[in-house]
Amino acid sequence: MLRKIRITLATIFLIGLTLLFLDFTGTAHHWLGWMAKTQAIEAILALNVVVIVLLVVLTLVFGRIYCSVICPLGIMQDIFGWLGKKSKKNRYSYSPEVRWLRYGMLMVMIVAFLAGIGSIVQLLAPYSAFGRIMTFIFQPLWKLGNNVLASIAERADSYAFYSVDVWLKSLPVLIIAIVTLVLLVVLAWRGGRTYCNTICPVGTLLSFISRFSWFRIQFDADKCKSCSLCSKNCKASCIDFKTHHVDASRCVVCGDCISSCKFGALKYAPITKASSHTPQTGNTSKEDKEGKSSRRSFLLATALATSAVIAQDKKVDGGLALIQAKQSPKRLTPITPPGSLSAQNMARRCTGCQLCVSECPNDVLRPSTDMMSLMQPVMEYDRGYCRPECNRCSEVCPAGAIKPIDLEEKSSIQIGHAIVVAKECISAQGTDECGNCARHCPTGAIEMVPSDPNDDLSPSVPAINEAQCIGCGACEYVCPVRPLSAIHVEGHETHKHI
Q1: Backbone phi, psi, residue 271, to 5°
Q2: Gap between the Cα atoms of 439 and 457, Å rounded
Q3: pLDDT at 432
Q4: What confidence tier does 158 reach under pLDDT thresholds 50, 70, 90?
């Protein structure tokens, strides 16, 4: 029964959290957005006291059920491990805790957070790893499937589906996502919960609490026949059948051991004084205390590339005219989304889960390729601009890196300001009149004025009212100059209201 309950709840969470990243319409977030806020690191960064207290209480009472029910990366590992067991049953074995690695990785996470090295934090955060995999590997496949259905529906004069662009938002992050997925598959296939109990900082953090949990997996020594089936089916490698000991700090309460025991020697029940002093035999515990080398192997590889986002030329006018694709300029200050308050707040709180990137309907947000802020969202305007009627990124962020804002507030937040490169401007060259930037500016911050104040007939150039510009990027997006726009937005380190 324990195993069935765990599988049912884990399935609900995995499907719900997966839909949050795959769905590009915003419908899933309306119903399932609360699931993202239950993730441990995101709740801590958002100072979500209710969720933090709930997770602590759940762990104190039931053990590390978070890792097998709520964490999507843990559930994904269970699926890979289950597939591995299909090829070879009873594949696991007990191994002592690798403390130096567990606590070492936790310290790396804490030091990186305090030092503001967001790229390391994001590589280690489990929900972020899951988000990268879903956003960069599975969401494009989901969109391609949607486009096939849209094409079929169009032929039937139905608009139940609509086509969306499928494009590569960041090659480096795609590579990181692929490497992470391969790493998880290999580790889970061979050793079950190796990643959770050696690398994951959330697993290590919860292990401190789970040592004192009320409900635990316990042995009935009188019934145990030392058949070793429990150890061979423990994905956490935390059951030593020889000494009748279960390491509660690594146990994720999956229930597999109870299901595999043919003699009823294991149970999940409240801990008592009698059960807390289980007799131990053999030399295994002694070896554990002396810290001899573990029998499990571990491989960690991360591949980073510095390539820019891939863009392709587009054909318009029935495919007869070739229009060169826009390129994003190299900005002195990156642009962070409205509601992020400042680049510093983004660096401190963002875990790079890519939920805002996957949910952005305007194709504005994408992961940063800067090493210090790798995978944190930045704004680029080569495929769209930040529309005043959209605030979805602030609604979906679970870590507090982008604060919730309403549409009225968003229109008054200045995230940057526009800059004109006069020598590239079509109107300034005097050959043609353009004025696209002025016509499309939603705040009226751009005005076309004579390039020569003393000559009203001189070529017009755009003039920027920086006090009125909010940095939405509409001017940069609609500028017809290619590949770099004649007008672009520079970000502000700290946002302000105007």
Answers
A1: -75, 140
A2: 20
A3: 81
A4: confident
